[in-house]
User: What shape does this take?
Amino acid sequence: MTITTSEARPRVEQRRSVSVRRFYLDHRAFFRGMTSVIVLLVAWEITARTVFKHSLAIAAPSAVFHEYVKLIKNGQLGQDIQWSAQEFVYGFIMAAIVGLFIGLFMGAFRAVREYLDPIVNAMYATPVIALGPLFILWLGIGINSKIAVVFILAVLPIIINTETGIRTVDPHLLETARAFSASRTQIFRKIMLPAALPLIVTGLRLGVGRGLLGVVAGELFAAQHGLGYRILFSSQLFNPAGVFVGITSLAFAGILSMVLLRRLEKKLAPWRTEEDN
Assistant: This one.
């Protein structure tokens, strides 16, 4: 039986429609996110050009884009991003290592938790940003003081979420493992750590946000380069476009970090799949 061209064409169109729909479903979160971003940018552009047309407090996205181009051409933006990236990466890596180590031990061992819990809670309740001038006094105005601010801000949520993740493991799983004579190391590695992984990743995400805040705070106190310095310098010159360049660059860094952490979570815990809605 031969299929004519007129009969084959609807089948091709149907397959193409199914492929397009499948591609959309696979990348649905991306398309929805981009839709929100586009709507926000359009509303921002219209508002800046109508309501705040003669204001020095806000710049339209088009003006921010032109400021991006200017700073990229003269090399200032690349220098600022490199400076801030070093502060954040060094500080966050140190915070992740120390925070995971302390959090795991606090969650797994009651004695460690009882010794360190008052200190961690006191530090978390303290406005750590206010310690920025002290770090600059101790470590100077160079990169070391900024790394210290990033570290102290990022390490606390990592410790708290890691500890909480270890302590909230389903007790029935632990009892079952002990009933099958699993060792303490096997219980920790096979049950407690995988079960706590979502909260651990959540702590890392919170650490990213607080670490970026630490970058800005440290550079606002004393710096000669960096995105925080760019925000301060542009505000002193009444240049809102330059201020938004620094802010949006930090926002992009935060988004990129969150995407990388989500991919890390999917790789480490492939059984945790997001429900289709």
